[in-house]
Write the structure tokens for this entry.
Amino acid sequence: MAETRDASEIFWVDPERRGILPLDGFRMSRSLARRMRSGRFRATLDRSFPQVLDGCADRDETWINGTIRDLMLDLHALGPAHSFEVWEGEKLAGGMYGIALGGAFFGESMFSRVTDGSKMVLAAALDHLRRCGFTLFDTQFLTPHLASLGGVEITRAAYRARLARALADRASIDAIAMDGDLQAVVQRMTHTS
């Protein structure tokens, strides 16, 4: 992270309590499910990484400085950094980027340009990652927004144990094609047996 957009230094964050979002624990409201079923939106993977990165940094205060932007673009070119996008027609409605290592995905930041844009992209990403065999979705911190969607906090020790198991997994974000049909995502996430 960086303190601000203009900061020259970056630093690692290792909080005592870590935010995670269980891959099978996403809480979908009725209004979000209705919006995702509307047929107006579709999801993609890695279609617009630079635009997603810039969308995440496009706020009054951001921890994404030039150094982090350059490093993330390099990591995307090398393979471990990815973006998930939600589109309304040809308009980028929301996005999220992060890093995939083993069976862990480290969600770095997300943004929304339409109502529920970040929620839709998060639902699509969790669905895809779960279907590809990922076992850990790291959010670093637990915000009220993430808590409302099913995020939880765990201790540093519990996180490190989960992280070690996830890093040993051989999940691949490309194991299956991204299902851009958000209606299908809702069906898989809300299906009960």
